[in-house]
Amino acid sequence: MSEQQSNGAPAVEGLSERTRAKWAAASTPEKIAANLPPMLDLTIENITENVMKINSMCDNPRLRYLILKLIQAAHDYVREVGLQFDEWEQAWEFLTKVGQISTDVRHEFVLLSDILGISALVDAISYPAVPGATESSVLGPFHDEEAHSFQYGESIFTEGTPGEPTIVRGWIKDTDGNTVPKALIDVWETDGNGVYDLEHDGNADPNCRGKIFSNEKGEGPLPLPHMHFMIEHPKYTKLITALYSRDSNFVESDTVFGVKKSLIVGYKWCEDLELAKEHTVTPIVKTIDGKESTGFWLLEQDFVLVKKSPPPPRKTED
Amino acid sequence: MSEQQSNGAPAVEGLSERTRAKWAAASTPEKIAANLPPMLDLTIENITENVMKINSMCDNPRLRYLILKLIQAAHDYVREVGLQFDEWEQAWEFLTKVGQISTDVRHEFVLLSDILGISALVDAISYPAVPGATESSVLGPFHDEEAHSFQYGESIFTEGTPGEPTIVRGWIKDTDGNTVPKALIDVWETDGNGVYDLEHDGNADPNCRGKIFSNEKGEGPLPLPHMHFMIEHPKYTKLITALYSRDSNFVESDTVFGVKKSLIVGYKWCEDLELAKEHTVTPIVKTIDGKESTGFWLLEQDFVLVKKSPPPPRKTED
Known about the structure:
The structure is a homodimer.
Chain A: H1 17-25, H2 29-34, H3 47-54, H4 61-81, H5 85-100, H6 108-115, H7 118-126, E1 149-150, E2 166-169, E3 172-174, E4 184-189, E5 209-213, E6 222-223, E7 227-233, E8 236-245, E9 264-265, E10 268-270, H8 273-278, E11 284-288, E12 291-300, E13 303-305
Parallel strand pairs in A: 1-5, 2-12, 3-13, 8-9
Antiparallel strand pairs in A: 2-6, 4-5, 4-7, 7-8, 10-12, 11-12
């Protein structure tokens, strides 16, 4: 047997960093054991109480509450459906793969949460609708912190991106109707083929996404085609939302449950070539109502932010 | 806009393999949309029903049942604890890390399931105790398919492994008392320092683990020191179990909830040097009951397997 470390754990060479950290954090086996509740011969019926006991030694009351409730919910589920060993194996193998195909910019657990409706529910609970304020929607798996910054009025797509040119403009306001200058507007969307930049091969530069500050008057115009927005300002609650086109096939069946009536918008065809020029948008020729027309799509949409207020207390017990 | 593929999806170049596969599997947007239930303006109250509706289009009745119940359980949990956005963020970031530190031999989602008592519960449900048969226990995160095979009686640890020599021997039997020859016994355990081979740096060879067939008489002896066993035979239900030493500090507080009374064993000090020789075990000198003694540890333990029978039907509805 090797010499012992100060906490009683034996000094072993060649351990991986993980295991070394685990051992360094441990007290002596005797001390740990003395503090644990006794458990023996767990049954399907008594196991939950036992597991909750041993997991209740957490100082943070909110975290303890979340963990204990999670154990109760997970055990109730397993018991109710009679989960079998091979099903459990498939579940953890699946979850491992979800983690392993995730990257810094591809958040597959967010997507899993999205399609199970958990994201939309958490969103609804965390950001209850405030009368007069823009409603929130789900973050989705395609947000990328690494998006480029743009100047007010610049285009967020690169030359040659499929799709038709669109200008989005509107005011960033608060619920009293005041404009909010210097709000950070983070926008992301697919190209005209319905593909996010992150879905392309290789490490291409960010495209169809960008961060823009609203101007001194609180105006935030951006040329683009489904659209996600994250709007931040130190004095206001962060708004994560999205605008859904009235013309989409999926506006009534969004698989990630983000659509709200107030977030469905319509694009207007606009022939104001001066406005196009101002925002460096190249107009296209398109048949509109049976006539050839030179123009672009315009979406006018204000966003109304909510002033920050102290958060309500979080549950720590039933 | 690019040309369309046969299913109506546009043909786009440079897509990642993932996205290509996703598109190839899709029907046309119109067809998909026509088959989806309408949803709009989800609320905290109605979202669960809506999410279940859109996730109920699964042909496998058991899978559909598991998914729908999972949605219900997850939503009930989120609503009951009032899960907040930042807590949800921490949760998916944590789960991503769990997946990313997992490897072929390091199953961190199994460990997470273990410490939440889910593994032990699934084990109890999947393998109910059969009178007279050896009870099962949890798999744990340290099983490794890549373990070496050994001949009957060979030692599974390499020269210089810390610990004291131990011989484990016993019969593999069925519940009628018949011996079971040619059962595959897969054993894994820590070394004398309490460290699994997988916890060491680098890709060292498997150590303190191995696969052995029971002999013609069904006897399965192995020299070793806490021990996991997986015993397989085509005619018998696979037994995953573990033996827990009576002398362990943690026998009443196993953090993965695997201990059962019938699996607690005691090692005996043995001075039978002929037996040691037979199993290529080098005896050590140790003070036993105040006297110097040359010997090794012996554990005699039979394993009783259950004959395979048709599995009971699994729930597909309440």
